[in-house]
Amino acid sequence: WTSRYLSGGNSGSGSYNELYLFKRDVINQLITDYQIESMIDFGCGDGNQIKEFNIKDYIGLDIASSSIKICKEKYQHDSHKKFYVYDDPSIQSLQLQADLTISLDVLYHILEDDIFMDYLKKLFTSSSKYVLIYSNNYNGHIEGHMHTRKFTDYVENFFPNWSLAKKIDQKYPQKSSADFYFYCKKETWVITIKFLYLLY
Length: 200
Known about the structure:
It contains 6 helices and 9 strands. It has helices at 2-6, 17-33, 65-74, 113-125, 151-158, 186-199; strands at 38-42, 57-62, 81-85, 98-104, 127-135, 142-143, 146-147, 162-168, 179-185. Strands 3-2-1-4-5-9-8 form a 7-stranded mixed beta sheet, sandwiched between helices.
């Protein structure tokens, strides 16, 4: 990915056009419905898909230092957005936390099982309330730069204090096999249900 961004490439079709608009609309609706103020994006890429997120405080992480450089330049005048290299030791001391953590088109690009589990752990432990995953969800095989897994089984087995609140189906199945999976921390989920009941 570092080489891809250095050579002028971007985050791919999933961050542009119809899929970009689909993600934007779903995420902004969740931000509104659940009164989300802060977000950590575990795989921000070139930053295109975040440009219209209606979020007060945003932190973008990515494994590619070249993409972080692009994002910092793109959003240098936006004080509400900060960007860090995902595995930079210096960010460990920041103890990053947010209302919502998101993972968009990342899980099936992680080939190694140990890195996959470490990623999931950081994704869920960095959130105080909600986790949103946009991915396909089936066991497959390693092919090129893709490794499909039924990640919901991993979440159920290793993160029992989280519940799948809703699944939002892909609007353009001819373009992507990924759907949205929205998780709530169990103690948060009880409060959220009461809030939504009073709201509607």
